[in-house]
Structure formats: structure tokens, C-alpha cells
Description:
This protein is mainly α. It has two helices and two strands, in the order αββα.
Amino acid sequence: MFLILINFFFLIFNHRKEQDDLQEKLRQLERKLIVGGENLLDKAEKQARLLEESDQELAARVQNEEQLRQQLQQKEVL
């Protein structure tokens, strides 16, 4: 009976230690994600949105340029 209790407490201790270790790892990851008061995940999402907007603007400019080129060719034909 005494050995069973010792094993039980040992298992509880190991489980608690694993929980503490995992919580510490999570805290370390959170510290890495926040640098200089700025959340890097938010920053990455913002940069992705800006990149998408830039891509859309570029596509619109290319399309506009193509339309202008076609108009110029039509005027040259006339």
C-alpha cells in the first residue's frame, strides 16, 4: 500500500512538472511573438493586407496602361 501511494505521488509530481514546463514554454513563445511592444502576428497580418492591396493597385495600373495603349493604337490607325 505504501509503494502504491509513493507511485501515485510520483505520478502527480511528474504530471505537475510537465504542466509547469509546458506553461513556461508557452510564456517563452509569447515573449518571442511580442517584440518591442509590437505583436508580430498582428504585424505580419497587416503586412499581408498591405501586400494584397499593392497587388490589386498594380493590377489596376497594368489594366489601365493596357487600355491606354489600345486607345493610342486606335488613334494611330485613324
